Fold this sequence. Notes:
Elements: H1 5-17, H2 20-27, H3 31-45, E1 50-53, E2 56-59, H4 61-87, E3 91-94, H5 97-113, E4 119-122, E5 135-136, E6 158-160, H6 163-166, E7 181-182, H7 188-194, E8 204-205, H8 213-221, E9 227-229, H9 231-239
Parallel strand pairs: 3-4, 3-5, 7-8
Antiparallel strand pairs: 1-2, 6-9
Helix pairs in contact: 1-2, 1-3, 1-4, 2-3
Amino acid sequence: xxxxxxxxxxxxxxxxxxxxxxxxxxxxxxxxxxxxxxxxxxxxxxxxxxxxxxxxxxxxxxxxxxxxxxxxxxxxxxxxxxxxxxxxxxxxxxxxxxxxxxxxxxxxxxxxxxxxxxxxxxxxxxxxxxxxxxxxxxxxxxxxxxxxxxxxxxxxxxxxxxxxxxxxxxxxxxxxxxxxxxxxxxxxxxxxxxxxxxxxxxxxxxxxxxxxxxxxxxxxxxxxxxxxxxxxxxxxxxxxxxxxxxxxxx
Length: 250
């Protein structure tokens, strides 16, 4: 009968630490669980593995020799995994800059902590040659030739502005936005129609057009105008009180 690998790993830790308690701490288990594993392993192997010497546990000569072989085997497994991961090319992922910084990066950080395969992120705003990436995340209606497409989620936008810009006013209808400068965005006309009204003729747009929605958001926080932003990406700005969304957010 061959003991479980976990039992052998615990044996190696106990021999290295010369203490069940320190081995338990290293392995993030309780000392009682370690003691039970060692007793079970002794029963499976048919011989004692440790002797008590005061507060210390001393491995038998056979146990020390076995632990050394186990350590070498575990090191070999770890080395093989390192070589495998080093030989595995990274997943090349491209996404728009704002989406990458506001939504993707925090989730990739959790993915990295979980020990996932390496990912190489590109934040080019345009879709490059398909040979330059493995996965692309883009906003659009699809129809990218030569690529498999999967719909991830709808991307809605809503006006957001700094609290001090709004003051004590309440915007009762979309047309009231004509009283403010709007930060340029290609979807303003579509947003007004989706809100049930034609775009006011007297809309005023800020003189500066920013290349990313991230910059739009920070300009809005500074009071430069009303930005058309995605709640998916910028809801935290509203929750922190940096921006106000005067109309319902999806």
